[in-house]
Amino acid sequence: MSTSEERRETGKAIQGQLWPAVLTGPTGQFPAAKLAPDFFDIVQQTAFGELWARPGLAVRDRSMITVAMLAALGHTDELRAHLAGALNVGISREELVEVLMQVSIYAGVPATGAALRVAADVLGTPDE
Amino acid sequence: MSTSEERRETGKAIQGQLWPAVLTGPTGQFPAAKLAPDFFDIVQQTAFGELWARPGLAVRDRSMITVAMLAALGHTDELRAHLAGALNVGISREELVEVLMQVSIYAGVPATGAALRVAADVLGTPDE
Amino acid sequence: MSTSEERRETGKAIQGQLWPAVLTGPTGQFPAAKLAPDFFDIVQQTAFGELWARPGLAVRDRSMITVAMLAALGHTDELRAHLAGALNVGISREELVEVLMQVSIYAGVPATGAALRVAADVLGTPDE
Amino acid sequence: MSTSEERRETGKAIQGQLWPAVLTGPTGQFPAAKLAPDFFDIVQQTAFGELWARPGLAVRDRSMITVAMLAALGHTDELRAHLAGALNVGISREELVEVLMQVSIYAGVPATGAALRVAADVLGTPDE
Amino acid sequence: MSTSEERRETGKAIQGQLWPAVLTGPTGQFPAAKLAPDFFDIVQQTAFGELWARPGLAVRDRSMITVAMLAALGHTDELRAHLAGALNVGISREELVEVLMQVSIYAGVPATGAALRVAADVLGTPDE
Amino acid sequence: MSTSEERRETGKAIQGQLWPAVLTGPTGQFPAAKLAPDFFDIVQQTAFGELWARPGLAVRDRSMITVAMLAALGHTDELRAHLAGALNVGISREELVEVLMQVSIYAGVPATGAALRVAADVLGTPDE
């Protein structure tokens, strides 16, 4: 049995692995969080505190499938955040490019094209 | 039996409830309407004049499900217009936030995140 | 602060409004629940216990937007369950048909066609 | 200015080109049409009577892009009907296979795979 | 049996029909191509060199269905490029507007609205 | 520089890891392959022979992200095949359940529900 506060702490720990430099959480000051603070609290407790935190799959594997899904579904804003997070949990730029190339088989070439445009911005390019 | 002109008038009346401050209709001057004026005429006649105008469901209910669908499908430009329209037909900002939070169950967390970013801009945030 | 058990009870109460005749919950015997019992427990706690249960929007409104989203997204299995649930929380067959017709504007005619085929089965047709 | 009845006649003529052997229209006896007769009437008037009937693009071209879109969006029931319709407006089985193969570039390999399974049933295979 | 180099040449010839003014290919300098040069090489060899180049369907028809699919799937960046390409392979502005209007039947009004906003920019409007 | 035949051999080797008991390839006898043999040949050469075979990401990782994407996109037929393939390249049933649970965060609860129904059939349930 877990309390809300326990789940928040667990979620915050996972978020800290993905985005160590960001002060995360329901008290964030961006406009969407001010409009719907409970939503970001529930996401922290459930998405991060209950699902991402489960021991049955490594955080690295969860990060990799998250990047693939966000690219396949066209959620480029979230993709941007999770590409940065993926680097922080140990997935290399070269592996992320392979993940995005694999997306093209299942979601089509334009999905990979859009994801690579975001990735070039987040990850930089080889000769930079 | 309805004529084109009757449907246009009915559609215009519904559009006027949603967006009273906007001069709507097929003669609008935005570029897409200049490129395809017939399309916006058909939308006015059919989407608004035939479907939205049907008496079997309140305009408020149609507005609410439209906001939910646009958020779930990721149509953020249309969502922006329909969030403003929803306020005009009597749905409160607090209810709209609840609608968008419910979207996350069925379309995923990123769909709600993207919708809340638009909503924070259209609806403002509580302490503004 | 809420515990897992409190959320489960709240979620079960909402599920009981939607589907009073069904014994719901994580101990259900259908194969997917046996494969992933924790998933259905988390859904009960979070989707039903935290989101559907929030007081800011009526269960009837949540049911209506859920039906619209499931039709728009093409999730016909879930749609089947939620059409039955919608009747149980007071939405009429005629209103549900209007909801599904409205879907065609935003998700296209085939989405409504597929939803109406499910609805004809769940809701029956007028002369039955 | 067109009346409802004029649009119905125009729509019925287009439907007759696509599906000459089928008695179409709002009085059809399939369950979804009994549940929502107005919906199929509006589709006949608008989708067929106003959009498909426009002179600016050949019915053959409209049929071809419709098959591509339905495959890309995964609407397999509607795809089945429109593959049969495409043959009736002069698109060959070989061309339809090319259309479905092109879908894989933009919507991914599984979209084409699902469409080809339907097509093998509707169109038959070369040595049959 | 085809070699990589033969497929590249075939693909480049198709790309040259669609976008004659652009120096295309894997050595392009845009950031995504620098990040994932192999991806754009595979697209040139396969999407253009093997699928678009097949003789069973005219390039004009492939262009038309591609525009329809990109609009239906909401890939606006790729749509922009393929609207320009469609003009270059002989599809008129008026036909492209008809294609995008047809999209609304199968993918909904907002898909056409978003596509027309891109099209107004790429194609210009009638009185310009 | 690779020839068609080399790519086919490489693709066949990857397919053999995923589905060792199946005679795969363009000569398969299922109806879709008889209708469009070239399509399945291109998939073998490109999807498997060029993308899956790249050394920059393990086949296990490619399998895991493929399962996640297919579940997120609702391609249940392909998901069925790739769940079986995932077991063959060393991903456990328990890990696959975790992958599918993670899908619910990004694509919604119904996507995971549909995937678990397929998975219960392919993977069996714990007490079987």
H-E order of chain A? HHHHHHH
Strand content of chain A: under 5%
Shape of chain A: globular
Based on secondary structure, the structural category of chain A is: mainly alpha
Q: Helicity range of the residues of chain A?
A: over 70%
Total of DSSP H or I helical runs spanning 4+ residues of chain A: 7
In terms of quaternary structure, the protein is homohexamer
The average pLDDT score of chain A comes to 93
Total number of beta strands of chain A: 0
Work out the radius of gyration of chain A. Answer: 15 Å
Please describe the biggest sheet of chain A, giving its number of strands, its sense, and whether it closes into a barrel. none
Characteristics:
homohexamer; 128 residues; mainly alpha; 7 helices; 73% helix; globular
How would you describe the overall organization of this protein?
- The structure is a homohexamer of 128-residue chains.
- By secondary structure, chain A is mostly helical.
- Helix content of chain A is 73%, strand content 0%.
- Chain A has seven helices and no strands.
- The radius of gyration of chain A is 15 Å and the shape is globular.
- The model of chain A has no long low-confidence stretch (mean pLDDT 93).
- The A-F interface holds A 47, 51-52, 54, 56-57, 61-62, 64-70, 72-73, 75, 78, 94-95, 97-99, 101-107 and F 47, 51-52, 54, 56-57, 61-62, 64-70, 72-73, 75, 78, 94-95, 97-99, 101-107.
